[in-house]
Structure of ABC-2 type transporter transmembrane domain-containing protein:
Amino acid sequence: MANRFRQFRQLLWKNFLLQKRRPIGTAFEIGIPIVVMGILILIPLADNDRSQDEKICFSLFTEKTLGEIIVPHGEIHQFKKLPLAFYPATKTVAELMARVENITGVSTVNRSIATGKQWSSAASMAVEISANENTYVGAIEFYIGEESKLPKQVRYAIHLSGYWSTDAAYPSYPSPGPRRWSAYEYGFLPLQYAVDMAIIQNHDPINSEHLIPVKMKQFPYPGYTKRKFDWVMLLISIMMPLLVTLGLMYSSMTIIKELVMEKQNRLKESMKMMGLANWIHWSAWFTKNLLFLLITGIVMVIVLKVLVFTHSDGSVIFVFFLLYLIATILFCFCVSVFFSRPVLGMLFGALIWIATLVPYFVIFDDDKYRSLTRSQKAGACLLPNTCLGIAGKTVYPV
């Protein structure tokens, strides 16, 4: 064991001596990541105008407001020109939807506009509504059988735009302050209000001539720190993986070139003939590269901790980048075994290094990312730069 340790120490000394003999390359390996990370420094520094807003109280909206906003202004959402679909097309439901039409002023249909035929099922209606969202206001599905009278307890579902991302538990790109994207501005509450009033009028037509007044108000939002540029964190989450990848590209090319050059010069075979174990050879290269890249990693951690992730635990950021650097070194080791010429290995290594970030931009869209299974996400994380991008995407909303 003492002999193995002596071999490891001598190899480590040899690797650092080779690093010392190329000062220009060493300066580039350290300087390029620092310069690239300087771009991340400039972005938060531009966001130096912050203000503490007072508590925000919202205005009251009533049933009159609900009746007005069901026809929003604009060319895209002119609801009165679009029909409201419903299913099933029974006499009871048709009478109920006639009352909804009187309340909202929106025409109702129980058949396809394209074919003129009644929908055979709620699923067929949902398919057509989803495919033609600019043709229909939405759809209402009643869970009512063939009863001649409307039951006292009516279950129904309102189907509107498929872009509401209701499956998401948290906004993809949150911004400081209250959420002003209110449901009542997009037709859901007006339709719910109209259907409920129609049900009440159906059960008690004499005493419910006038609509029941409804008053609602959004809960006040406490004071908060508002950034001058709300897009700063979003921009950093997008740029950080790309900048880190570009910053470490020269280092990854150098690692691959040194390993392939040693193979080309038959140094590894010569040392193995003298009794050097293969694992000691790889361990010495791994230790040298890790210690050298830690200089860059520590700078990255300091920059991100001080200027970006101010309230995050610095040790967690350090452990993450430590694992990223380890994955980077092992990735370069893997690439180096496929080449026998240093220049060719270095050039292809640079292309492969950049290519490992491409899957991240493919799955950057929230819908695509959420559609991936756990095993697919784990498989994508085998590529170090894609894993870095996914981590930035995951940390950003937090």
Notes: The beta strands are 51-52, 60-62, 84-87, 108-109, 138-142, 156-159, 215-217, 225-226. Residues 69-77 have pLDDT under 50 and may be disordered.
